[in-house]
């Protein structure tokens, strides 16, 4: 049986340096690895194409176990000793202990699109339900909800939780659960935070949000369908899903300064311990030979798998 690969790449932070393959991790066929996150001493990878989350030993770059969860999983975060993974197709968030691997299913609104952990809680966006939802880890249930049409992305930063939807961006104070700002940004998509800003994808590119003024301070044109970005090495990495590339944006100039080739259908970039993990959930097997990371390079890791199922409304 053909098995697909998770290929690990390394790239220097300078635009002149090319990505370097440092390892390949075998996963099952049609796994559609979607997103990665650190939890405990492990790296955890969701599989949109199969109802499992993988646990990877970053010291050996090998899958050491897997836990069965809901179906259509992607966005995940770590907190309260657990991984929290949204299961798009089963409308649950799976809580998986990083020590025992035990799963607890938390019922959430229809079609969760993203999950993160911040300020002592798990947060998920329920796209079809049209809500941002807060989960109390002490109760394993949703304790607060905010209406947000076509809720999509969520990120915790600058003392707030930021979530996107059809009409724009909402900012929540986690201490009071109050909405402290609404920022008009039609069809706001995926989220990232860092370098003094919140970054939001949209139909025509990337928007920079100033958390001091709650306004759009810059827009960067990036063509095509854009995935879930991250700030890595001081720059914003934005997946261009259909182009099979990652656009690199310099916050100092608010411009695209480079591009990194990825596997077919890169969807989520996640910064983990100074590295960028980029699952290619739609791609064929990623080929290349592994080698050690150059001493001068900031590592960038890319995961590739063979996926056939479309990824939500933002897919390809």
Topology:
Blueprint: E1 4-10, E2 20-27, E3 33-39, E4 42-47, E5 52-57, E6 62-68, E7 73-79, E8 82-87, E9 92-97, E10 103-107, E11 112-118, E12 121-126, E13 131-136, E14 141-147, E15 154-157, E16 160-165, E17 168-173, E18 178-184, E19 191-194, E20 197-201, E21 205-210, E22 215-221, E23 230-232, E24 235-240, E25 245-250, E26 255-261, E27 270-272, E28 275-280, E29 301-304
Parallel strand pairs: 28-29
Antiparallel strand pairs: 1-2, 3-4, 4-5, 5-6, 7-8, 8-9, 9-10, 11-12, 12-13, 13-14, 15-16, 16-17, 17-18, 19-20, 20-21, 21-22, 23-24, 24-25, 25-26, 27-28
Biggest sheet features: 4 strands, antiparallel
Spatial arrangement of strands, main beta sheet: 3-4-5-6
Whole-Å distance between the termini?
A: 27 Å
Poorly predicted ranges: 1-5, 9-16, 283-316
The secondary-structure class comes to mainly beta
Cα-based radius of gyration, to the nearest Å: 18 Å
Strand % is: over 45%
Q: Roughly what percent helix?
A: under 10%
Any idea of the CATH topology?
Methylamine Dehydrogenase, Chain H
Question: CATH-wise, what's the superfamily?
Answer: YVTN repeat-like/Quinoprotein amine dehydrogenase
Characterize the overall form: globular
Tell me the name of the CATH class. Answer: Mainly Beta
CATH architecture annotation name: 7 Propeller
Order of helices and strands: EEEEEEEEEEEEEEEEEEEEEEEEEEEEE
**What's the structural domain tally?**
1
The total strand number stands at 29
Number of helices: 0
